[in-house]
Amino acid sequence: MKNMFNKQKFKGIITPAKWQDGNVTEISIQTIDEKEYIVEQNDIGKEMFPFINYPVEVSGFINKRFSDGRLMITADKCVTVIASNADVYDSIK
User: Fold this and answer.
1) How many domains does the chain have?
2) Is residue 1 assigned to a domain?
3) Which of 10, 26, 78, 85 is the most buried (most CB within 10 A)?
4) What is the pTM of this model?
């Protein structure tokens, strides 16, 4: 059987992805290369809600959501990171 999951690690910013009645109901990670990953609401995903607009480093399994084909991450680790000149320099290379 073919493995349908792909574990990855990347940096990005937590952003709101969906609202209902003025409340954020879904979040995503926006990466520097303009990819968006919807965060699955497992235990770690739920803990990420207070960190909207924070830069983070996330690792987890990537798959496509059945309902709309968007990329999703099932996070197994999320750490806030401090942006620095070194981060900007590394991303330009």
Assistant:
1) 1
2) no
3) 78
4) 0.79
